Structures are given as C-alpha cells and as structure tokens.
C-alpha cells in the first residue's frame, strides 16, 4: 500500500519537503545570528554610555574614521562654538516623529582643530528653502560633553546625499565634507551634545535605544518549528493517503462481491429463453 510513494506526485512532494527542511533550518540560524548581533550591539552601546568620558582627541583625529569600538563613547572637548559656520541637517525627526533639523555647529578646540557638534533638534517652522532660526550656542570657552558618532553615509543611513540644497543645509553629517567647506582640520565623526544645556537651546537628542532585542529569537524558533513540521506533515499525508487507498480498495471489493456471477446470470436468463 506504500507503492504510491513512487508516483510522480509523491516523488515531487517528497523532494520539495527535503529541500524545505534545510532551508528553514538555515533561516532559523540566520535569525539567531541577528539576535546575537543585536544583543552584542546593545551591550556595546551600554558599555560605551557607562564608561567615563575621555577627551575626544583620544578617539578620533582629522581625516580618520571613528573606530567602531569608539562609537557612542562619551567624550569631552574644550573650546568655543563657531555659529558663523553653523549648518542644519534636513529631514530629521525628534522623539515625537516631528520633522525638523539637526543643528551642526563647529566647535573650535584650543589647538585650532574643529570638532563637529550636533547640538540637537529644532522644528521646521518656516519654508524648507530658508535657513531656520537657531538658538545661539553658549559664548566663550566652555567644555562640552557628548556621544561620539561616526560619519553618516547613504549606505548606512539610507538617506540620499542630495546636492544643490539651500545655503548652509546638508543631508548627511560628514566630517570630510565639512573640512572641505571650512578649510580647516576637522576631527573624524561628530559628537551628539549632552551637556551643557541652557533654556532656549535645541532639543537634545535622546540616547540610542539599547534595551530592545527584537523578535529575531522568536523568528528563529518559528523557522525551526516549521522545519520540524515538514516531516510531521509528510507522515500525516502519507497515512491519510494510505487510509484512503485502503478504504477505496475495500469499497471496490464490496462492490465486486455484490455483483452476480456469470452462472447465476445464465440460470436467470434460461427460462425466458425457453
């Protein structure tokens, strides 16, 4: 009763199942690796935010990328803000998903180098073609503290670096582009300001979320359950097919037994013939 497994339909069904099992197992491991990567990323952010602040020039330098191990590290710098060369970053949202600008202000260090400081978010109240009104930064020499971030790229952020924007407006924060525009040595990356803060300053950016781990582990388990369900489903289908074939064979045998045999048919027909 299992010879039906050699039919074309069942051979194809079995082969499809054999292909699906390893594919689903691999998809489960892919989601597991994403879960592990997310956990490791959250741990890196947590350690960076908990570490004591260090001078920014220990972790970055002009013309260099910020090392991955230094991203989100709290850093300090001493110098003065240069609002004359301030620019705004377009199409940025705050914690309430309101669209506005990030305010990027050069911070001139004691040795003449420049550290780009993202002072926070302001709303886009006027036309997008006009330079928005920005609260002035603190005057004089101060010490700032913030989170060190790497240069933004279109590949990482998904934001297109549009050219031909209105004056003093940019799409991505790039220390290389700002070094070219300012004609000065600019430290790689930039800093998201956390202190100091005064009353009318831009809205400081929130700490990166490093508490959630997503649903990757649940997806991994789900794929593995699907993989286990393929052979279980195949067995159920085989048993159902076998049962249906047995029942069909029994009905055929019963119908055959109910038919009169040839001798009885001939005997019944003889009197009429006579």
Write up this protein.
Helices cover 40% and strands 20% of the residues. The protein is α/β, with parallel strands linked by helices. The protein has a domain at 52-195. Strands 2-4-5-8-6 form a five-stranded mixed barrel. Helix 1 (8-50) packs antiparallel against helix 4. 20% of the residues are buried. The mean pLDDT is 90.
Features:
5 helices; single chain; alpha/beta; 274 residues; five-stranded mixed barrel
Number of helices: 5
Share of helical residues: 40-55%
The secondary-structure element order is HEEEEEEHEHEHH
Radius of gyration: 36 Å
The best one-word shape is elongated
pLDDT under 50 segments (min length 5)? none
Count all strands and give the number: 8
Main sheet: strand order = 2-4-5-8-6
Strand content: 15-25%
Q: Tell me the distance between the termini.
A: 49 Å
The major beta sheet can be summarized as: 5 strands, mixed, barrel
Q: Averaging pLDDT over every residue, what do you get?
A: 90
Helix/strand/pairing class, anyone? Answer: alpha/beta
Protein name: SURF1-like protein
InterPro entries: Surf1/Shy1, Surf1/Surf4
Main location: membrane
Organism: Streptomyces alboflavus
Give the topology, please.
Elements: H1 8-50, E1 54-55, E2 74-81, E3 87-93, E4 99-109, E5 114-123, E6 142-149, H2 154-157, E7 169-170, H3 175-182, E8 190-195, H4 216-258, H5 262-273
Parallel strand pairs: 1-2, 3-7, 5-8
Antiparallel strand pairs: 2-4, 2-6, 3-4, 4-5, 6-8
Brief summary:
The protein is α/β, with parallel strands linked by helices and 274 residues long. The protein is built from 5 helices and 8 strands. A 5-stranded mixed beta barrel has the order 2-4-5-8-6.
